[in-house]
Amino acid sequence: MLADIKGLNEECGVFGIWGHQDAAQLTYYGLHSLQHRGQEGAGIVVTDGAKLKMHKGHGLVNEVFSRGELEGLTGHAAIGHVRYSTAGGNEYANVQPLLFRSQTSSLALAHNGNLVNANALKHQLEAQGSIFQTTSDTEVLAHLIKRSGYIGLKDQVKNALTMLKGAYAFVIMTEDKLMVALDPHGLRPLSIGILGDAYVVASETCAFDVVGAEYLRDVKPGELLIIDNDGMTADTFSSPMNRSICSMEYIYFSRPDSNIDQINIHSARKNLGKELYKEFPVEADVVTGVPDSSISAAIGYAEESGIPYEIGLIKNRYVGRTFIQPSQELRELGVKMKLSPVRGIVEGKRVVMVDDSIVRGTTSRRIVKMLRAAGATEVHVRITAPPIAHPCYYGIDTSERAELIASNHSVEEIRDIIGADSLAFLSPQGLLRGIGRPDSDPNNGQCLACFTGKYPTEIYPDTVLPYEKEMV
């Protein structure tokens, strides 16, 4: 999908490696494979056992590291980050990893997710004398670690993590350790792999394939892994709660070649398309998907229905993502630049257009209009997610209910707004079936908050916009 608002943007991607002489170079390739998760900034911090060195900047990975910067990042371990700014602004200081130096040791942090109690913790820490250098919620963890009353780093980190609420996948590095932590609900994806004698951690398993690592396992909710020259040890900082991994990882965010919780993304999306046809069949001549994340679902819809799948929309690979544009006018122009209908496929045809979500409706309306202008006689829109009617506070940039079309309009009203002949959204039950969650799991392993309004964690008042507080 083209992410039809400022929201539905990727949360961020983290990568780490310990025990390899080409740590920085491998981190570069790992971040490149996670580029779809964030395109506003990138950075790498390395350690040689004595000192942490960093380079970061705004832009894509290959833009930030375009002048030989990797050559100066020598060391046997590294962490890296690609960023979309869901919390804090896009200032240089907020680009991760964040690096903190002290007289005793240094600490680097990279984070995927969003802390719902970040503001409350900042007020508390500032009252105790902390001075924040960024507006990113990630910095909160560094202050909590430093102000912990515990002596050893492991206990300091464990104590700090227990104070955090929300979604977080952290990679933390000092001169002699790499630490990995996942929130107790497991809202964000995070996996561990091995590359020879080296350990690798990444937001998605597609990064392992790129660097040649072998998948070992997922990081468990509430788990803290400590990796150093003696190997890897596992500890916990919290009892795991009901697994609530973000459903949009399967629907939209992750690459099709990644596996999350041992479920392949491409296979899950195909199954979502099949479930969508079972729930909402339609007579048509061709099925097409909105590139790229909806292609797998469109194939599944076509297979289940027997309607031929065709490439009815072509994506221009040389245009930046529409949600990065600074104004609504430019975002709408970006849709025209980015997608083109294939007239020879859709002309004179009844078209099923499969997409992953409708957030504000701008993109869907323009795509339907383009298909009609190319000669489609009917356009039937099928969405592989339930209506997004509630804000996300865990790292997806949909924190304003007013921007969510499903919060203010019925399905029939949305159909009329986007100009489709018919419109249908997959049910929450169909979503869980398509992903492959067992009915015996009381929480089905998924966060459905943006569809149902049932949040897996407490939502703090200062996280919610004033006019939305009564709705949470």
Automatic annotation (TrEMBL):
InterPro entries listed in its UniProt record: GATase_2_dom, Ntn_hydrolases_N, PRTase-like, PRTase_dom, PurF, PurF_N
Pathway the protein takes part in: Purine metabolism; IMP biosynthesis via de novo pathway; N(1)-(5-phospho-D-ribosyl)glycinamide from 5-phospho-alpha-D-ribose 1-diphosphate: step 1/2
Annotated residues for binding of [4Fe-4S] cluster: C246, C392, C447, C450
Comment on bound cofactor: Binds 1 [4Fe-4S] cluster per subunit.
Molecular-function GO terms, alphabetical: 4 iron, 4 sulfur cluster binding; amidophosphoribosyltransferase activity; magnesium ion binding
Glutamine amidotransferase type-2 domain boundaries: 12-230
Amino acids binding Mg(2+): S293, D355, D356
Cofactor(s) this protein cannot do without: [4Fe-4S] cluster; Mg(2+)
Catalytic activity, EC: 2.4.2.14
A Pfam family hit: GATase_6
EC class name: transferase
Record PANTHER family: AMIDOPHOSPHORIBOSYLTRANSFERASE (PTHR11907)
Family indicated by similarity: In the C-terminal section; belongs to the purine/pyrimidine phosphoribosyltransferase family.
Protein name as annotated: Amidophosphoribosyltransferase
Source organism: Fictibacillus marinisediminis
